[in-house]
Amino acid sequence: MPERPEELNILVPESRRAEIQRIVTRRQALIAGGGAAAAAYLAGCGGSTSSSDGGGGGAGGGASEDEAGKPPTPADGTVEEGDLLLANWVDYSDPANYKGYTKEHGPKVKVSGFGSNDEILAKLRAGGAKYDVISPTGYAVKTMANLGLIMPLTHELIPNIKNITPAFTETDYDPGNKFSVPKDYGITSFYWLTDKVSEQPASIKECMELLKTPKFKDMRVNFLEGGTQVMAIALAALGYSINSEDQAEIDAAKQLLVDVKPNVDTISSTFIEKAQRGEIDFGMGWNGDIRRAIETLAKKDREMVFLVPEGNTEYWVDNWVIPADAEHPVAAHKWIDYVLDPAAAGKEMNYHQYPVPVEGISGVKPDLANDPVINIPNDKIEGYESQLETAKGLQQRNRAYTEFKAA
Amino acid sequence: MAAAEATPASAPAAAQPRGRVAGALAGLVMLAVAIGIYTQIGTLGLGLAPSVALLLAALPLFVLAGAAIRRVTRAAPTEHTGYPFGLALPSLAYYCAFFVVPLGFLLLFAVATPLGFGGVEYGFDLGNFEAGLDRLYVDVYLRTLRTAAVGTLLIVLVGYPLTYWIVRYAPANRRGLFLALIIVPFWTSFLIRTYSFLIVLSPEFFLSDWLQSIRLTDGPLEILNTTTAIQFGLVYNYLPLFVLPLYATLERMDWRLVDAATDLGASQWAAFRQITLRLTAPGLITGTLLVFIPMMGEYVIPLVLGGGRVDFIGNVVQRLFLEAQDYALGSALAVLVMGSLSFFVALYLYLSTRTEQEYGA
Amino acid sequence: MPEPLRKAGAFLAALCLVAGIMAVVAFVAALAGGGVSTRGLIGFVLGVVAIVLVPRLVAVPGLLGGFSALVYAFLFFPIVIVIIYAFNSGTNVAEFAGFSTKPFSRALDDESITSSITRSLQIAVASATIATVFGTAAALALSRVSRRVRNQFDVLVFLTLVVPEVVIAVSSLIFFVNVGFELGLVTMFLAHTVFNASLVLLVVRARFVSMGSSLEEASMDLGASALATFRQVTLPRLAPAIVAGAMLSFTFSFDDVVISNFTAGAGNDTWPLRILAGIRFGLSPDLNAAATMMLGVTLLGLGGAALILRRSARTQGGGGLSLTGEG
Fold it and tell me: Would the pTM of this model clear 0.80, i.e. be above it?
């Protein structure tokens, strides 16, 4: 147990916003920052591409090809001394949980903020940051695991791991939770104002078809920014995998986007305020953000709905992982265990308002827990895909997106 | 100056052209060597400080090479009246290390083979240029060209009268103030200023209601997210870049010539056209180019004011680097854009150095 | 006619002229586009009238003065908006909910804002310093040197000014990454200084050249050493230009978005990058408040510097602050 009181040095602007608006930081920064600086999959592309050769991003010094740090065994279950260094998206965990963790296990939690998966990936590769726990998105987890930047989890040190919703124990990017546990997840889909849009599309495909109709010329339509984001929706609309690398499918998706573009007014991630003011009639967004807009507009007697689609769409999962060079691995495991507890998970969910896949989650505000936008049934989740990134896919999508923008 | 120039010029007159070629070749070799060195510094895995030390230690190399080139081209011995030429060496080294060599890397990457995620395989592969010349990128480039041309024209039309007024008619002791006033807005952040246009031009702001009430527009203001809004932003942000050099030129103008012309019966407009405009033409062109060329690479203003619908070639390059991480194609596009502007760049360089010459000697 | 009234008249006249020109251009554009309206026609006629009449009624100096006032208004209007909306009590930037100073206190509390401003200050000060030293030294060395050498050097200098920022930024990114520099404050500083050094060089050289060398020659003739001459004769007279160059460098570095965007690396947000990140979620009054505070600080600093310079210039017998070597 640390004796000296060290200051709780929180480097994220929590003080700024208890108010819900700011929570969109993470996702929007993701889109703004761009794709991950990931290496090719071992299976897929064959041959190493990144790091050591004199050309990779973030080359030169740095622990790029580290062996995975040795995970602690259940035997050394004692929590280390010193602060727990946690890197999180801005405003993305309940400070009450930091305090609760300190009370239960001892170490104070020192929080650093980061704005994109690239950023945290770059920091890990450069080495020296020595975080104990970080929260990357699914595809980044896979990259980090492949590069040996994170350590396999010792499940025995995380008894609460049994609480994870089954659908999230076998994800595409980390089957069996070898390296990660899910923190929260969200989906990308469409939303609209019911007093402007009387139709009720039930799938991404129907939404895109609707966007082609001449009626939508006068509607204020907003798309999300970013090649990977927009292409994922287009591919899902056509029934293809959002990770497709088939050029014909990509071209079809691009054509769909180009066909729809005349009715699209803005392509921006700065949409949330406009949506909350009711200035967007039909748009692309994430469930957590849109839920807030729905609430705000409800107060003004306007109804906005968010579609939890049939069929395919993109879902993303943020995860807790432990870097290989963590200095307090046991404390890190204990943190993960702590937030997988139903009560703590409930606090988290209340704070950032995205669904947390913990069974028996408790203490969640009723309107949040029962909100169909947040509480997505398992069978629908199973129909969704999460994004994986490859060099080739990135190139294809960027190209298609540029054509969409130029249209 | 003239006398000093005459002596060496007469002697190795025949050697000059050949010497110049040799000098240019030597310069290229030097550049290649420098890039080679710098590429290898990375693999040495030294820290930041040793690497910088090593880079700056290359300074003697440049100096020696420069001296060698001078000897080969038999240039006139420099006249250091008062200040040793060595004082200019830190700048020279700095430019070489952090400007010329990076541009060299750009060229290197433009002809390399992309491996994805920022990686390339060095070699000579023109595939990137082929991809860069694709119809898609050419269209974006042309659109950028159109908007930048209009923007530059607007800046000239707005900036010239303004500068003229400051130079000629503003109270003499306040001129610095008026100039400073053009720069003061630039102490708020460029982004916030640009974003504030989003407020001003938005349909909720009072400007829209006001324009509607005086019947200038039919409905709420719809400028936002169009090229027009971008045009506003461009003019707003690039104006000082035009005004400052133009001011420097206009200030040196001898107004008595204009007075003499009008005394002799010319109309104000004719005097302006035939005297002022002609004499200040180099400065005018310089200012115009200083605005136009960087504007071609602009991407932030279209991003913020264009609602994301409008892509400039700068946006495409930025996305290639930061999103798609295709450094090779991005570099090739950057090289192509610079190449297309090379005529303007050369013109700018020629006029600037000539102007500096005239007023410097 | 009393002075203020005449000025107001000139302003209005300029406004009419500009509006007239815009109406004419709009009408012609509409004609080309095929969508002419009665309103456009009326505008066209009024515009022509304005273009013909106004220059006859108002003398050129007055007209130009009015036009300049118009331009200044255009330049300052968004700034005023920024400042006003910094006092916006609502969280939404386009709707002014009420007057409040809360955004200011929130901005000061916000660690991401204060740390990014600090970073920007660090980089800007360092860059301005180095650029000033290097640029001044080069200006001195080059201004009295043979034409050929100066031309060659100048090509390099002007090249750094004219190459689009995005090209410099991406080449710097490639360079730093491949040489093994970790992207961060230092790399941003290195990239900014390239442009800044050129700015300083040009500004100082212009002043130096127009100063003439007679005073210095006199000083040397009277027996002063080169160093003493530099310190006591050259430097004080050059000071305004050096300061101007330094301020321009500082401004450019502090406000830089493009180069910083590429060379910042992870988590090293400068103030402009922080705003760029903030813009993603919609500009908040906090950012406006922080920007207003920065503006205030800068104005104070500038005003202070100007005062000091004016006082020292007066004791030196020189003129006021000038960018290009007047006085």
Answer: no
